[in-house]
Write a structure and sequence with these properties.
The chain is built from 3 helices and no strands. With 96 residues, it is an all-alpha fold. Helix 2 packs antiparallel against helix 3. It comes from Theropithecus gelada (Gelada baboon). InterPro entries: CHCH (IPR010625), Coa4-like (IPR039870). Pfam families: CHCH.
Length: 96
């Protein structure tokens, strides 16, 4: 289960802070495609850490270690995915 955080609203007036809130997924809701992607990536724990930090601090600047860890995890996952696709492509062309 993931918590969906709304995108903070920007305004031209003086900053009022972010409106980060946690929303719990209901049983009858379909899982969000982004949540499915994150779950399959193996980076769900670091994504959750970012969400927890943002809910607690409501300031992304205080959550940079968590953001960086999530970014690193997703980058590693994308690299592994690219390597796997390249391997499959090479195997397919070797069999033809």
């Amino acid at each position: 289960m993931f918590y969906r955080l709304p995108i903070p609203r920007m305004s031209t007036s003086a900053p009022q802070g972010h409106t980060w809130t946690q929303r719990v997924k209901k049983e009858d809701e379909e899982e969000d495609p982004l949540d499915q992607l994150i779950s399959r990536s193996g980076c769900a724990a670091s994504h959750f850490a970012v969400q927890e930090c943002m809910a607690q601090h409501q300031d992304w600047r205080q959550c940079q270690p968590q953001v960086q860890a999530f970014k690193d995890c997703m980058s590693e996952q994308q690299l592994r995915r690219r390597e796997e696709l390249q391997r499959r492509k090479e195997q397919a062309s070797a069999h033809h």
